What does this fold into?
Amino acid sequence: MLQFNKDGNNLFKKRWLLAFSFFCFINASAFAQELFSFTEPASNMSAKSMGLRMNVNYMKGFQRDKNSLYISPEIMIGISRKIMIHGETFFSNQQQQFQFKGASFYAKYRLFSIDDVHSHFRMAAFGRVASNNSPMHSTAIVLNGSTAGVESGLVATKLLNKVAMSSSFSFVHSFSSPSLNSPNEIHNHLLLPNQKNAVNYTLSIGKLMLPKHYVNYNQVNVNGMLELLGQTNLGLEESYIDIAPSVQFIFKSKMRIDLGYSTPLVSDLTRVNSTGFLLRFEFNLFNIFN
Amino acid sequence: MKIIASFLFVFLVSLSFGQIKKVNLQASGLTCSMCSNAINKALKTIDYIAAVDANIEHSTFEITFKPNAVVNFDELKKKVEGAGFFVAKMTFTLMVDQLDLYNDKHSDLNGTMFHFLNVGNHKITGENTFQILDKGYVTAKEFKKNSKYTTMPCYQTGLMGVCCKNKEKSVGTRIYHVTI
It folds into this structure.
């Protein structure tokens, strides 16, 4: 069983401080696209509209020949101007054969909004519940395809002209524990109740690179983004923080392709896959529920 | 007393009030073309709109209407808000043969109630553009700033109060506060 120690406590405090700083930084910064590749912004999609996504992750495995492909079809619905929901299913070849892994439901409620021409500051509350039918192989609680659990938190987004900045902070709870055939021997144990809880924190910055001037809706938009995605386990005193650069293309002001790469800056929590590529297709259908 | 007060506040002007030619609105809270398109598509779901000409860079939308359309400004605003944004400015252009403007008074124009603010008392003719000053039609800062032009409670609510009802319109009727 993992034990607390003095160094671990100090490290844990430092990481809490880092996590808290991420969330506070957004409130001290005046910073377009508020569409991020690895995180959700505080803004919602248009009411009575639907978005369809196909998320493809190609992740490096522990062993060279064990790279994994994850495919996650996703549907997003704008219920009203304040509420939107996502439904997502997960498939992967992580266990040799390509198979269904689980599903998640996500909802977001826009709490607060200060808008001005070409700028806004918004805050939203969000929650996610995820199922997973395969053994948990990591101590990281990854709800999009690897762990069954729940998550709840806040996200704040600041948009100013061509730059958007977003930060989120959430609590996540795992329903399961790592299995005995965990790839990392040190974590061959059942998690204690408090080790099933973690905090997630993210910081995202995006900038509209092209076009320099808008003329019509058919121009291709190119956004460049840099995101930091972190998790600290409340019981294990361990964390990961990934850095995730991405580029996003928007076609005809309704289709989106994201190309991203994520790799750990800090990686104490074990994960089956931590480095890899993201390819996402998104198509938006406006006002289909009118 | 109430009747006298109502009579004093409400001026029914004689005029030839033409159809609204166009509405120009500026939305707030967006910069990207996909966001602009969300507003553009939402506006186009209104059946009496003939065309929407969007300027993505300035977040403005020029809306023209089908013949004999009865324009509901609140419906336009609701569409912008449904797309996830807000109205920062909305103006409408109409042709009038003659219209007597009375500052800080109510006028019934073809069944829609208007409250003119900061206009002075004068006659207007021809094509004129009016700006709506109600809550949600200007920025919060501007709304507060414009409150100096009237002391009537309808400015805060957008609805006719006990003070300003008349024989034709009851308390609670929508009233738009506009300037020229």
